[in-house]
Design goal:
heterodimer; A: alpha/beta; eight-stranded mixed β-sheet; four-stranded antiparallel β-sheet; about 20% strand; globular; B: alpha/beta; MetI-like fold; Rossmann fold; 2 domains; five-stranded antiparallel β-sheet; disordered N terminus; binds adenosine-5'-diphosphate; binds iron/sulfur cluster; binds magnesium ion
Chain lengths: ~350, ~625
């Protein structure tokens, strides 16, 4: 390994990150037909913290999750998990390290094998070699108790449970592996809002108790705000803003602003909702994003509405550290030529 | 929890019994009827008679006996053929799936190539190369079907391997072979059994076909195919001769199909279960609570929609409580009424009853159900035309409401052309105008596109345009934003608001998300277990002045986008709403309610005006509940 290649690994470890992506691109379709839908992602999750990944559907959130757990081989970049570069591993070594990072998928109706009882599913997670260790039964009861399910349910099949219960079983299975990192991909979006709170609280209490590192993927910023220490905003496969989750209350990127303003806010009523979107920008293809700033066809500060913003079409803004005007001393970065904090401070015009 | 017990499907029994009978026949028939089937008689090509039930062949042999005796050879050949075809196919198909990426690509291309040749041609070539015989024809047909089964196994296995539960099992660290045997094959077993039975049936037919053209079984052996071939030569003279072998082939195919299908159902843990039916409770809750609610609402002559005492049940004698119990509501012009509650609380049923779009099996009754003052509650009175033009409906999933095979335009204009008799041109112009109103970009282009060519938000707007086409006085929007991104949701909510003000239209907005209804609506009805448990203005809802413990719980469970939200834990709602087959005694919310008292378990509270203000159905609450945690 050359010194320059070793550098990100060392920095990742020295800064106490549990999981890092360094310049990761990934996509679908093999060989010459492959199309990247994720471009040049840099992010790090400090050990024991929760990083939220937010963005609209199709922005690449699930693709990122699949790349991070090694389901999808990145076409560029590396993924560092603790002390190993997991994206470089294959075969047996990969299988051994895979257990250190677990995924809770979005759809509770697809994530459990319909022909396996809950007990067998948990057994398998505890010991995939099938040696059936003696303590396994006790451990299964303990896991079910952790997710507030009765140990008696272990002999049932997945179809006998509601969506919220299945999601708790999926969480129990992820915990059974005792991973260092858990990736939760839209785990509450298929649930009724009354059940959502239960699953969110469960994940929060698990994290408080075990100091597990978590990547929490959601399209709902009020959920991200509740769950996450830090957030990263994805738009068409690129990170456009990241930093402490407090940035949601004074975003620098117009896309983050748009997401924030879209959350129904009962106190503000309709006036709190953002002005309707400029039409024509929807349905962009992440494998073939617009030139320059990919958000420019939809941006309310961009070239569609202002003549002096030619630059947004010709030059892609880089994700750069930003000055934080909230006084919290938070670190944050945004990829915009005309960040909102500068507009607010009168520097941008 | 309902106790459930697996039931063996009838198809399984029938198929297994038939195949067992056929197998027994195959073993014993040549022993019993072997001699009589070979015996010649003078009655050549005879019709049915007492001695020869199915007639005789050109040599005067009994057709029934010969059909029975031929069962052994036919079934044995079909079994071996199926074994070769299915076995070879599964091995080839599964090997390709577990192999590395390179081998997989190569193998799939090879199968593509092989599948291009029809099996019958392959079988013919193989038998032509070797001498026609029982052995060669079985091997030939078996091999000819291998590529098809390999392809099917391969497709099934790859679809199972991309399922979330296989992905998760891989992350847990399962080795590929274990993954294959534990998750992939068991979930393939069902479809493969069906496939095997189909394979068996087609083996019988193909074998018979080859024997028929003389490439299969050779004299003096005979199978059903040869018998049929003989019979078809005599068809003009003695049609009954074909009956025996024909029906035998048919029954065998049927038995195989039934067995495969039955096994598939039986092996699936989600398959048909028998639920222990609960006895109907002596007191069915809700009935007495209906009248006070209706009386509470003053008659509203200016209402666009007026509903009193709407009750909907699965069937008059169904177990459990009715699905909707005594709902009364009014919506005025220009007003947006929100209905909020968990899934299964009866929101959609209520709305569909108003639109008169209830599923046929449901029984409903109402004291009043009027739209624009016209009574539509009489089930016999047919007013579909008025309803189609008076009420517009927008559903949760726009993609399931458009026919994917037709252009968007004609689907939007259908109502206007059919019910209002507009010309095609006029209807198109109207549709374009409505699409523009719903902020659909380039409406002329969209009209000529297929639904899948529109983004999700665009489809939802097109559906709103369709609902507005006939300028209805009421728009029902059932979870119109649940399937959408937050950004698109915000746009759709803005759009509904604009429609309500510019058209002075009455809108009923249904959502499980209390934040959505409190953002858009003027008035909100909270539904729980088929009843309205609280009715309040949006101002009260926004300020948190809610009176029913259920409404309070919905608010406390919803995350807010506020800086302090992280420090204040959400309060989840414990338990689940009552299931539809459960009778309801007392307050339906009692099992989940922090304020529950003994009285709540006996008496169903009526919706009433509370002493300290507010309208709710609760024995305990006297007015706005601040914070349940504090109250406790
Ligand atoms: N299996 C797949 N094959 C091809 N394209 C895919 C596949 N899965 C997702 N995509 C595409 O990748 C992009 C990002 O998708 P995804 O990561 O699922 O986004 P999100 O999770 O943010 O909704 C989308 O354009 C989507 O259509
Ligand atoms: S770079 Fe330009 S178009 Fe992109 S977000 Fe910033 S202002 Fe908008
Ligand atoms: S009637 Fe009783 S159980 Fe029902 S909501 Fe009121 S306090 Fe709770
Ligand atoms: Mg996703």
């Amino acid at each position: 390994m050359s010194p320059s290649e070793a550098a990100p690994v060392l920095r990742h470890q020295a800064d106490g990150f549990a999981l890092s992506a360094v310049g990761v691109s990934a996509g679908y379709g093999g060989g010459r037909r492959s199309r990247d839908v994720l471009h040049d992602i840099d992010l790090s999750v400090p050990a024991g913290q929760t990083l939220g990944i937010v963005g609209e559907s199709g922005s690449g959130k699930s693709t990122l999750a699949r790349a991070l757990v090694g389901q999808l081989r990145p076409s560029a970049g590396k993924i560092l998990l603790g002390d190993v570069e997991i994206s470089a591993l294959r075969g047996r070594r990969l299988r051994e390290n895979r257990r250190r990072i677990q995924l809770i998928p979005q759809d509770p109706y697809a994530s459990l094998d319909p022909r396996m009882t809950i007990r067998r599913a948990l057994y398998e997670a505890i010991d995939p070699q099938g040696r059936r260790p003696a303590q396994a039964a006790a451990r299964i009861s303990e896991l079910l108790a952790t997710v507030s399910l009765d140990p008696d349910v272990a002999s049932r099949y997945p179809h006998e449970f509601s969506g919220g219960q299945r999601q708790r079983i999926a969480i129990a299975r992820a915990l059974a592996v005792q991973p260092e990192v858990i990736i939760a991909d839209e785990v509450t979006s298929a649930l009724d809002s009354s059940v959502q709170a239960e699953v969110l609280n469960l994940l929060r209490s698990i994290q408080a108790r075990t100091a597990i590192t978590m990547l929490f993927i959601t399209h709902d910023l009020s959920v991200a705000n509740y769950m996450c220490d830090e957030v990263a905003v994805l738009y068409l496969g690129r990170l456009v803003e990241k930093g402490s989750s407090r940035l949601l209350f004074s975003p620098d990127h117009p896309y983050t602003r748009r997401l924030v303003d879209s959350i129904p806010n009962p106190r503000a009523g309709l006036s709190g909702l953002s002005a309707p979107e400029i039409t024509g920008g929807e349905g962009a293809d992440p494998a073939n994003p617009p030139a320059g700033c990919a958000f420019h066809p939809r941006c309310p500060n961009g070239p569609r509405l202002r003549d002096d913003r030619e630059r947004c079409i010709t030059e892609r803004p880089e994700l750069l550290p930003r000055w934080d005007d909230t006084g919290d001393g938070d670190h944050r970065s945004a990829a915009c030529h005309f960040p909102l904090s500068e507009v607010r401070a009168g520097l941008g015009d | 929890m309902t106790t459930s017990k697996r039931r063996k499907p009838f198809a399984l029994w029938l198929g297994a019994a038939l195949l067992l009978a056929l197998s027994v026949l195959a073993v014993v028939a040549p022993i019993i009827w072997g001699d009589s089937a070979a015996a010649l008689s003078s009655e050549v090509r005879g019709g049915p008679s007492a001695e020869h039930l199915l007639g005789t062949d050109p040599l005067g042999r009994d057709v029934l006996d010969r059909t029975l005796v031929a069962a052994r050879l036919t079934l044995a050949m079909a079994a071996v053929t199926t074994l070769i075809a299915v076995g070879g196919g599964i091995v080839l198909g599964a090997t390709i799936v577990v192999a590395g990426r390179r081998v997989r690509g190569l193998g799939e291309r090879l199968i593509d190539l092989m599948i291009a040749y029809p099996p019958i041609i392959v079988a013919l070539s193989i038998t032509a190369i070797f001498r026609p015989s029982v052995g060669s024809v079985v091997v030939a047909i078996g091999l000819a079907f291998v590529p098809q089964f390999a392809r099917l196994t391969n497709t099934l296995a790859s679809s199972v391997s991309s399922k979330d539960y296989v992905v998760v099992a891989r992350l847990v660290g399962l080795r590929p072979t274990r993954l294959l045997f534990r998750h992939v094959i068991p979930n393939l077993a069902g479809p493969l059994l069906v496939l095997t039975s189909v394979g068996f049936a087609s083996a019988i037919i193909t074998l018979s076909g080859l024997s028929f053209i003389g490439l299969g079984v050779q004299e003096p052996s005979y199978d059903w195919g040869r018998l049929l071939a003989q019979a078809l030569q005599d068809l003009g003279v003695n049609p009954i001769e074909a009956f025996g072998p024909g029906i035998a082939i048919l029954i065998t195919g049927l038995a195989a199909g039934l067995l495969g299908d039955g096994l598939n159902q039986f092996l699936d843990p989600r398959g048909p279960v028998r639920r222990r039916r609960r006895r109907r409770a002596a007191t069915s809750g809700g009935a007495d609570a209906r009248t006070p609610h209706a009386a509470l609402l003053a008659p509203a002559p200016d209402a666009v929609v007026s509903v009193r005492d709407l009750t909907i049940a699965a069937s008059p004698e169904s177990v459990g409580a009715p699905l909707v119990r005594g709902v009364s509501l009014d919506v005025r012009a220009g007003e947006i009424l929100g209905i909020v509650g968990e899934s299964g609380s009866g929101k959609s049923l209520t709305a569909m009853a108003i639109a008169r779009l209830l599923a046929p099996g449901l029984h409903w009754s109402a004291e009043t159900l009027s739209i624009n003052g016209a009574d539509v509650s009489d089930a016999r009175e047919q007013t579909p035309v008025r309803l189609a033009t008076d009420v517009g409906v927008v559903f949760q999933d726009p993609s399931s409401c458009f026919n994917p095979a037709r252009h968007v335009g004609p689907q939007i204009t259908e109502v206007a052309r059919v019910h209002q008799g507009l010309s095609k041109r006029a209807a198109n112009e109207l549709a374009i105008e409505r699409l523009r109103e719903a902020r659909v970009s380039s409406p002329e282009v969209r009209m000529r596109q297929y639904p899948h060519e529109l983004s999700g938000g665009m489809r939802q707007r097109a559906m709103i345009a369709m609902a507005l086409l006939t300028s209805p006085s009421l728009l029902i929007a059932d979870e119109p934003t649940t399937a959408l991104d937050v950004t698109v949701q915000a746009d759709v909510l803005q759009l509904l608001h604009r429609i309500s003000t510019t058209r002075n239209m009455a809108i009923v907005l249904i959502s499980h998300d209390i934040k959505v209804v409190s953002t858009l609506c003027h008035r909100v009805c909270v539904m729980y277990a088929g009843r309205i448990v609280e009715e309040l203005t949006v101002e009260d809802l926004r300020e948190g002045r809610v009176c029913h413990p259920y409404t309070r719980a919905l608010l406390d469970a919803a995350p807010r986008l506020e800086p302090s939200a992280r420090q204040v834990p959400l309060i989840p709602l414990p338990g689940r709403p009552p299931q539809p087959d459960q009778p309801i005694v007392g307050c339906a919310f009692a099992d989940r309610c922090p304020l529950v008292t003994d009285r709540c378990r006996q008496e169903d509270p009526a919706l009433r005006a509370l002493p300290r203000g507010g309208v709710a159905a609760c024995h305990v609450s006297t007015g706005p509940l601040e914070d349940l945690l504090v109250t406790q």
